[in-house]
Amino acid sequence: MLIRCLSALARTGLTPSRLTCQARLTPVRRFCRSPPPTMATFGRYTHAIVCRVPNSFKESALGLSGPVALDEARRQHEAYVRALRQLDVDVIELPSDEKHPDCVFVEDCAVVCNGIALLCRPGHASRRGEVDTIRAVIKKELELPIVEVLDPKATLDGGDVLFTGREFFVGLSGRTNEAGAAAVAAAFPEFSCTPVRVPAGELHLKSLVTMAGPDILCVSETDESQTVLKRIEREATFRYQTLTVREPAGANCVLVNGTLIHRPRSECPDACDVFEDRLSTALHPVCISELAKADAGLTCCSILIRKSKRPQL
Ligand code: CIR
């Protein structure tokens, strides 16, 4: 798999020798990995970590595109949390952290798959401290084995990590570098892991493509989204179906326990038409227009976890 990762990197024109896989398993004691999930459990979650919106979000979140209505941002976040709870997810809700204006975007702090949590090393230095809280919760509340990124040069935002249920694609973006992609490959060796160059101007891979269902990629009509889709299709180990929506924001949706959480008609009318016409999945619109002013999508507001009933040894 690492070979696949290396050869994929070579195709991106990056120097394979720069790929330094440095991830360490903590605790050091051995643990039993769950077997790779089957597609029957793809998009099935028992737990989620979310974090409330701090006051500092309004003035200091990264990439703000306009004035934020803080109360409305909080109402929207609450609706998102409610949606998860309605879908039978046990939500761990962290208090807002004023020192970290972007703390609501927990997705960037950890990638959890197959019973293992890889703690990220966010590409923007102002966000690195967010990981400490997430580490503590994953350790104490969820008791999952933790993998740390050791390479001090590695950067990795969870927003760049797309898991299809069969393999990983990791965006090489302004936030995630090759060493970050290598950390994903090392943490989840049971899956193929392919780096994908994220076009300039786009924050994360999942700003451009997400999963709208088992084996269904969701992209938008934009050149950036289509470029990334072509690369995924070229490199994928599996042939996926594709849903294409007009609005860029519509491409970021979250499949949770058989329901697709997506942006509402008021934000993404074409995407709603496409989902209603083409999917048999239940649909749950959630508006995040205020959070989106800080470059947010729906995926970024939670870390989704499927905790196996089997005790971790
Ligand atoms: C940032 O620039 O880091 C935040 N303002 C937005 C992060 C959004 N994260 C995500 O989509 N995974």
Bound molecules: citrulline
Pick out the low-confidence regions. Answer: 1-32
- Separation of termini? 26 Å
User: What do the pLDDT scores average to?
Assistant: 90
What strand line-up does the widest sheet have?
1-6-5-4
Q: Which oligomeric state applies?
A: single chain
Structural class: alpha/beta
Outline the biggest β-sheet: 4 strands, mixed
Q: What fraction of the residues are assigned to beta strands by DSSP?
A: 15-25%
What is the helix tally?
Answer: 7
Report what the structure shows.
With 313 residues, the chain is an alpha/beta fold. Helix 5 links the parallel strand 8 and strand 9. The N terminus is likely disordered. The structure holds citrulline. The site of citrulline has 16 residues, from loops.
Secondary structure topology:
Layout: H1 2-11, E1 23-26, E2 47-51, H2 57-60, H3 70-86, E3 90-94, E4 110-113, E5 116-119, H4 130-142, E6 146-149, E7 161-163, E8 167-172, H5 178-187, E9 192-197, E10 209-213, E11 216-220, H6 223-235, E12 241-245, E13 254-256, E14 259-262, H7 269-278, E15 282-285, E16 303-305
Parallel strand pairs: 2-3, 5-6, 8-9, 11-12, 14-15
Antiparallel strand pairs: 1-6, 2-16, 4-5, 7-8, 10-11, 13-14
Bound molecules: citrulline (CIR).
Residues 61-63, 102, 105, 107-108, 124, 127, 159, 204, 294-297, 300 line the site of citrulline.
Write a concise synopsis of the structure shown.
By secondary structure, the protein is α/β, with parallel strands linked by helices. The protein has helices spanning 2-11, 57-60, 70-86, 130-142, 178-187, 223-235, 269-278, and strands at residues 23-26, 47-51, 90-94, 110-113, 116-119, 146-149, 161-163, 167-172, 192-197, 209-213, 216-220, 241-245, 254-256, 259-262, 282-285, 303-305.
